[in-house]
What does this fold into?
Amino acid sequence: MTVLALDFETANERRDSACAVGLAWIAQGRVVRRESHLIRPPEMRFAPGNIRVHGILPADVADKPDFATVMAPYLGDLGRGLILAHNASFDIGVLRAGLTRAGLAVPDLAYLCTVQVARRVFPAPEGCGLGKVARRLGIRFEHHDAGEDAYACAEIALAAMRERAVADVHALAAALGLPVTRAVGGPAGPRRSPGTISGRALAAFPNEPAALRFAMRGSTGNRYHVSLEERPGGPELRCTCTAGRYGMRCRHVKALEVGDVTDLLSDNAGDVVLLARMLGAKTRVAGAA
It folds into this structure.
């Protein structure tokens, strides 16, 4: 059975915002293959906190392939094999969310969390974060680079196998009393485009929807304009602020989506209310697609 370590970095708080992936394959007691790719997330919205962690900027991924394109060559191994991840619930969540967002079928997945492995084999008062365990084991890597993190995760599993004198990861899990988690997959769904507005919803506007334009006040008092533009995935709200010019769904757009007129400068609050109703304010606030 294929055994591979997986690590994602995300652009923001959403699990479907992967901006980098790393993979490392294990065979015959060693890492035999490594892959690392940058990913263009569905929304070019990068949270400052995430950038501080991994250092990836919108400009770094603007011309990179999307999640489906990057992950397609590896879905066979991921679906048939055993996945290792350090804090596996996060990385498996990103994988499933990314595939669902891309409209792809989610394969059945089997995975083992190396945080749980480390807590049983290499416990320490300082904890079992990836960097801390790697440092204790002398594993040299560049933390928060997805490819490097996947490699470190694989090396932690290999070190635990050597420590417990077992032949493979399955035997390691059995020796530690850690069941391999199995997640049932799902069929492909419709591909979703972030921030787009359906034709049915647009029909609710009494006037030409493409003429919708809102003036918004920025945090420093600057005046920005949010307008409805035709995009390949459907009509989309775009803003003239810096974030909007980089293709991000900025705070001005988010405010309009939930009907917040606090910073509205133009005299068309009625259109904001209708827009929020169309987009489903509750759904947007909850972060669901």
